[in-house]
Specification:
Low-confidence stretches: 97-112
Helix content: 40-55%
Strand order of the largest sheet: 1-2
Strand content: 5-15%
Bound molecules: zinc ion
Mean pLDDT: 80
Number of helices: 4
Order of helices and strands: HEEHHH
Shape: elongated
Number of strands: 2
Length: 126
Amino acid sequence: MTQKKPTAGTSKLDAIVAEARRNQSNREQGYREKSLNMYPWVCGRCSREFTRANLHELTVHHRDHNHDNNPEDGSNWELLCLYCHDNEHARYLDGESVGNTDASGKDSQTATHNPLAGLADLLKKN
Ligand SMILES: [Zn+2]
Ligand SMILES: [Zn+2]
């Protein structure tokens, strides 16, 4: 008796996860491209200028630190070089826990990068 149980559900979940991942990367490509079309290729902090050759060092910062908040008018985006972008986030985290070495604040960046963030919504719709 080696009857295999059908693994119904697994492939469907895989498809949903794959779809969520695809949406996530499409969305990131989308807002990066839009903001680069919308704003001059200059860092908003140090005014360093960028060309196609080094454009990968220019990143899109979310003013409210919410990567899912991407209004069409670009009001939540700011172009920053890698260094200033790092500083911006370090400053933000410092402000939250002044003189506090507790590591509990460190998740605020990774949480918004969760590729499964939209999964709960997808499942709700079904
Ligand atoms: Zn800069
Ligand atoms: Zn940022």
